[in-house]
């Protein structure tokens, strides 16, 4: 099981739809127009197949208070932040620190996604890293943490996300 978490509106649902679209075409070809999304009230389960079947569970940002009921059985965690939204950065960082210190997620592999890099005023990965002191966070965390800049809208960086999922889930679905 892979969990995808992050504040509301960062693009989790769109990413999962894009990953499903890409994996069903072996990562080849152009993505179509972005499908519409609505805020996720509750949880969405999506299966994608990259060599083996991986189940991705999205929890809506508004479900934050009960995210922890879903930590069990989580092999990997995608944590998404909106690189175009500086006002949300500190709240996202607090959420991330909470996740990294959760006992049940201590063994999970973590991929931090900086989404929406297609927008003109996005913060670069270097800016985001220094604003939230990510090197310190990574050094103190028990988990194996990777970062990526993506655009779920345009498809930028999504093949790297699929590759990470494939590598991370080599032995677990
Ligand atoms: N410009 C831009 N917009 C994006 C991108 N990814 C998502 N969006 C838009 O952001 C809005 C919210 O996307 P969702 O995928 O519904 O966000 P979510 O994280 O699932 O939100 P909750 O379910 O409420 O937690 C939608 O209008 C998306 O089209 C991106 O990479 N670039
Ligand atoms: Mg959603």
Please describe the structure with a list of short key phrases separated by commas or semicolons:
alpha/beta, 6-stranded mixed beta sheet, 5 helices, 6 strands, 23% strand, binds guanosine-5'-triphosphate, binds magnesium ion
Question: Which helices and strands occur, and which strands form pairs?
Answer:
Blueprint: E1 2-5, H1 12-24, E2 43-50, E3 52-59, E4 76-82, H2 89-100, E5 109-115, H3 125-131, H4 134-140, E6 144-149, H5 158-168
Parallel strand pairs: 1-3, 1-4, 4-5, 5-6
Antiparallel strand pairs: 2-3
The structure holds guanosine-5'-triphosphate (GTP) and magnesium ion (MG).
Guanosine-5'-triphosphate binds at residues 6, 8-14, 34, 37, 39-40, 60-61, 115-116, 118-119, 151-153.
How much β-strand is present in the residues?
15-25%
Strands side by side in the biggest sheet? 2-3-1-4-5-6
Average pLDDT, rounded to a whole number, is 95
- Write down the overall geometry: globular
Low-pLDDT ranges: none
- Distance linking N and C termini: 6 Å
**Biggest beta sheet attributes:** 6 strands, mixed
Bound molecules: guanosine-5'-triphosphate, magnesium ion
Number of strands: 6
Task: Kindly name the structural category.
Answer: alpha/beta
Taken in chain order, the helices and strands follow as EHEEEHEHHEH
Helix content: 25-40%
The DSSP helix count reads 5
Indicate the radius of gyration in whole angstroms: 15 Å
